[in-house]
Amino acid sequence: MKRNIFIVITLLILLVPNLTEASEGEFRVFINGEQFTITNELGAPFIDNLSRTQIPIRAISEGLGHEVKWNNSTETVTISKSETEDISLTIGSNQVTTSNETITMDTEAMIKGERTYVPLRFASEALGYSVDYQWKGYHSISIADSAVEPVFYRPDYQSLPDEIVNWIEFSKELPLVQEKRYDGKRFVLITEGMKPTGGYSLDVEEVDILEEELVIRVKSTKPGENDYVTQAITYPYDLIVVENKELPLKFIDVDDEDRYFMNLLGIDAINKPIVAASNWIKVFKPQPNEQVAGTFKLAGIANVFEGTVSYELITEKGDVLHSSFTTAAMGDWAYFEEEIQVPGDVGNNGILLELYSESMKDGSKMFEVTIPLSV
Questions:
Q1: Whether the Cβ atoms of residue 100 and residue 115 lie closer than 8 Å to each other
Q2: Which carries the bigger pLDDT value, residue 117 or residue 273?
Q3: Is residue 86 within 8 Å of residue 73, measured between CB atoms?
Q4: What is the pTM of this model?
Q5: Tens digits of per-residue pLDDT, 341-366?
Q6: Alpha-carbon distances of 288 from 48, 353, 374, rounded to whole Å
Q7: Residues with Cβ < 8 Å from 4, sequence gap 6 or more?
Q8: What's the pLDDT at 309?
């Protein structure tokens, strides 16, 4: 499962005050897919002052089947990974010594409550395991043997390139599935759209290669009636990298096989910010209060009845200067683009650009988006 790191910083800041400490302190550790219980006397993971996750090395190492030795005089811990391979590190140092090399980590080993802690990255960089950290309303740490090549993995969210970070930010308010090729990797992004509170999550649980397609199994969760949740708007999503770069993608909700995952038509990905929006009409251009003359470009995406987006140019007094429509899609999100002529008799007054979909029931305006413009 993911997570989905799910905007960790935002959630931690916005958590209900009396619940912050409990949420920050809840860690769940999984070793090779099985939840691993760390008893209180062996310590518990925590976040250090450099925002790095620290894990109790004895508990984790023994859980992975390795012997751990402690030298009290040098404050050095040694993990025997095999009969011929020892790995050691010293308290207060970020240097890890293996049989083949010395590894420098981004934070130090430390002692807390008489237990030795090492950065979570130690498990992957020194011990050679695959590590997945996610925020799911709790801290989820998965450590697994890396002998089997993964079908998918989650990238390090702290080192994502700007293009991928922006892609997530531009897409987060849409229920949508997308993929993007970047730096030789095939990124897959599943977004749930805007939610009224915390407690929602979206996780890719499994990716299977079946016949001629890549099946991505997704689990969506929502808060229970009596759950304490963040009292703020949230945007659950999951981002993964799939190793197969050729097969088409199929998305399945593990709890609802009839669920339809919306696609994006007409453009490859959401690569620009949404500047004005209603639930089902999203506008990229023009910007609110943009100065226009002659013609200007209208561009956006929509998922509306019959795929038709109507639009009007309206004076500040409410007079309709021009009206027409453009075509998007129904059931999926589709790109639309139009060149709109500004009437010559507007003068220097402001005008409004209004977009909407007509109700199939009575023809009334739905999902209206109003953008003020300067002429």
A1: no
A2: 273
A3: no
A4: 0.62
A5: 988 777 667 899 999 999 988 889 99
A6: 43, 9, 9
A7: 134, 135, 136, 201, 202, 203, 236, 237, 238, 239
A8: 97
Residue 371: which of 299, 276, 301 has the closest Cα? 276
Beta carbons of 266 and 334 less than 8 angstroms apart: yes
What count of other Cβ atoms lies within 10 Å of the Cβ of residue 202? 24
Decide which of 112 and 331 is more confident.
331
The set of long-range contacts for 101-106, using a CB threshold of 8 Å and a minimum separation of 24, is: 106/50, 106/52
Strands 213-221 and 249-253: parallel
Long-range Cβ contacts of 61-67 (<8 Å, 24+ apart):
61/127, 63/29, 63/31, 63/36, 63/38, 64/31, 64/127, 64/129, 64/143, 66/127
In three-state secondary structure terms, 15 is coil
CA distance 22 to 135: 14
The one-letter amino acid code at 236 reads P
pLDDT at 349: 75
**Long-range Cβ contact pairs of 162-168 (< 8 A, separation 24 or more):** 164/239, 166/271, 167/269, 167/270, 167/271, 168/237, 168/239
Q: Is the pLDDT of residue 7 over 50?
A: no
Position 204 confidence tier, pLDDT thresholds 50, 70, 90: very high
Q: 126 pLDDT exceeds 60?
A: yes
Residue with tokens 């004005």: 276
**Residues 122 and 141 sit within 8 Å (Cβ to Cβ):** no
Whether 168 shows a pLDDT value over 50: the answer reads: yes
State the Cα–Cα distance between residues 154 and 238, nearest whole angstrom: 9
Which tokens belong to 170? 């531009």
H helices of the chain, in order, are 8-14, 20-25, 57-63, 121-125, 162-171
User: How far is residue 242's CA from residue 181's CA, in Å, rounded to a whole number?
Assistant: 11
Task: Provide the 10 A C-beta neighbour count for residue 233.
Answer: 13
Structural tokens at position 5: 């790191």
The pairing of strands 308-315 and 320-327 is antiparallel
Which tens digits make up the pLDDT trace of 185-194? Answer: 999 999 999 9
Determine the pLDDT at residue 25: 61
For the chain, what's the residue count? 375
Rounded-to-integer distance, Cα 42 and Cα 57, Å: 9
